[in-house]
Amino acid sequence: MSRHILICEGDPNQAELLSRLIQAQGYHVTIARQGGETLARAGSENPDIVVLDLTLPDMDGLDVCRRLRATAFMPIILISERSSVLDCVVGLEVGADDYLARPFRTDELLARVEALLRRASVYAQRLGPTETLVQGDLTIDREGREVRLAGRPVHLTPKEFDLLWALAEQRGGVARSESLLLTVWGYDSRIRTRTLDVHIGRLRAKLEFDRRHPQRILTVPGVGYRLCTPRAAEVAA
User: Fold this and answer.
1) Contact 106, 21 (CB under 8 A)
2) Architecture of domain 4-126 in CATH?
3) In whole angstroms, what is the distance from residue 4 CA to residue 164 CA?
């Protein structure tokens, strides 16, 4: 059975163009042109991925994304004319898995769709028995997808959790950037994206004592990132 992609696009011409291009790759595509219709179709059709335009006639696309993420875990790619880092951060913060600013190449959108679908399939196959990682005052429960910091629950989006788990699995070692992109998003080196940087920033905002001077998620210049136990956490433990 072909994978089902739901496109939410307010511009009818753009919607038809994207639909034809994606269908040509063997996917089953349905189109919604309003936010309310997108929420209804997502609930009834259970698509494998949602491609969501932020400019919609009836709702703010960010609100649609937020409401989708509250009830479903399918990957969401946001597309928009807005290209600033802040717009990207906000989109990822409300639960999107990726963000593409117009104009973009159709083959890049297809590559990201394929990567996210591949990653979702791999994750479903690998999900095994309960496993918990503890690093200082940070506890990560993979099966329950729960994170606690000093005993307090920390709300993470699905991709933030996947990234934190990938960092924690290194047991203090360095996780290379290209490996994180492949493991968490399914992206290979052909895809350029700020998604990893933005997600690292979001994790720091939620897990660091002072995000301006990170002690838990450290950057290894030119290589990647390392998850460490902050000195303050060691003292408190």
Assistant:
1) yes
2) 3-Layer(aba) Sandwich (3.40)
3) 28
